[in-house]
Amino acid sequence: MIKKCDHPGCTKAGTCRAPKTRDLREYWWFCREHAAEYNKNWNYYAGMTPEEIEEDWERQTFGSPLKDKKQTEQDNKDYINFLNDFISGRSTFDKTPSKRTTLPSRVVSALKIFELPISASWREISSRYRLLAKKYHPDTAKSNKDTAAENFTKISNAYDILKKHFSKK
Ligand SMILES: [Zn+2]
């Protein structure tokens, strides 16, 4: 079922989503024309081009603008495959990729501790950290306390390494 445009009195189909609030939890549904008018009049998007608005939505939804993400994924695909093979012990070292071979081994090891692929985003890393820290924190750990403390140290060290690496970019 297609909703009608939320603009009072408008009878066109509301096919464009416009956020009601800045936290983007609720949306209006406007026709194209009223969505453009709404976006123009709303401070959050004041002065932004339609492309910038679109990028902003993508960033909110996916963590980065889609075109950047696609480009990055394309660039890194071979290298990611190689490093994932390396981490899982499948690599034969026959095909060393030419691109970005400078990723420090301590960063690779840290990602391995987090059980994340080399393509992991900072967002994935920090949410994994919160999960693992909760699991192994000596105060909250449900299993063996000594092992938990050891793991917690390991995770904290790995997180420091990743934090340093990612904050440089
Ligand atoms: Zn309308």
Explain this structure.
- With 169 residues, the protein is mostly helical.
- It has six helices and two strands.
- The chain folds into two domains: 16-62, no CATH class; 66-167, DnaJ domain (Helix Hairpins, Orthogonal Bundle), CATH 1.10.287.
- Strands 1-2 form a two-stranded antiparallel sheet.
- α4 (105-113) packs across α6 (145-167) and α5 (122-136) packs antiparallel against α6.
- The relative contact order is 0.07.
- Residues 5, 7, 10, 12, 30-31, 33-34 line the site of zinc ion (ZN).
What's the helix and strand layout?
Elements: E1 16-19, E2 27-30, H1 32-41, H2 50-62, H3 66-87, H4 105-113, H5 122-136, H6 145-167
Antiparallel strand pairs: 1-2
Bound molecules: zinc ion.
Helix content: 40-55%
User: Helix-strand pattern, N to C?
Assistant: EEHHHHHH
CATH architecture descriptor text of the largest domain:
Orthogonal Bundle
CATH third-level topology of the largest domain: Helix Hairpins
Percent strand: under 5%
The spatial strand order of the largest sheet comes to 1-2
Bound molecules: zinc ion
Structural class: mainly alpha
Q: Identify low-pLDDT runs.
A: 91-101
Shape: elongated
N→C terminal distance: 45 Å
Q: Provide mean pLDDT, rounded.
A: 75
* Alpha plus pi helix count: 6
Q: Describe the main β-sheet briefly.
A: 2 strands, antiparallel
Number of domains: 2
Count of β-strands: 2
CATH superfamily of the largest domain: DnaJ domain
The CATH class of the largest domain is identified as Mainly Alpha
| Gyration radius, rounded | 23 Å
